[in-house]
Specification:
single chain; alpha/beta; Macrophage Migration Inhibitory Factor; 5-stranded mixed sheet; 5 helices; 7 strands
């Protein structure tokens, strides 16, 4: 049986997640692997040394708009613990922005980065399925789970397509 201290330590060590939303086909396999590598490195350097799970949400290109025109913006949502200090947050923003723009050639107005405390991050992810029936949720999570597994096996990173 875990003591309260051991339980709190284990709870803090739960794998944090990063959701990267990009256009389907926007980046090559090599770019995604490089982006994921620097995201992990920056997370270790500025937020926490523990492992982090990066998940790629690939949105069909025709469903992405920027400034009322078809475009290719990217969204990076990073989960953090409650104890993240402002200087850590700023350093992570700066490093990720610098590295992302260098690797992708995107402009700064095409990148959105947010760092959310765990409960807010979880609520954001759950919001995507709130409108679904029980059957719809089963289909939704089966599709995403299948995509994640297949992409990990074939591409060596976790990705799902957000349209079925």
């Amino acid at each position: 049986m875990l003591t309260t201290t051991q339980y709190e330590h284990k709870k803090r060590q739960q794998l944090k997640k990063i959701l990267a939303t990009v256009g389907e086909g926007q980046f090559s396999h090599r770019q995604i692997k490089s982006l994921e590598s620097f995201i992990r490195q920056n997370y270790r350097t500025f937020i926490n040394a523990e492992p982090v799970l990066v998940i790629w949400n690939q949105v069909p290109s025709q469903n992405i708009f920027h400034d009322y025109h078809s475009g290719q913006p990217s969204i990076l949502v990073i989960e953090s613990g409650k104890d993240l200090q402002q200087h850590q947050r700023v350093a992570m923003f700066e490093a990720c922005t610098r590295d992302w723009l260098r690797l992708t050639g995107q402009r700064i107005d095409q990148l959105i980065i947010s760092i959310l405390e765990g409960a807010v991050f979880k609520a954001l992810l759950q919001r995507n399925s709130q409108h679904l029936t029980k059957r719809g949720k089963i289909i939704y999570f089966f599709k995403i789970g299948t995509d994640l597994l297949v992409s990990k096996l074939l591409d060596d990173y976790y990705a799902f397509k957000s349209s079925f």
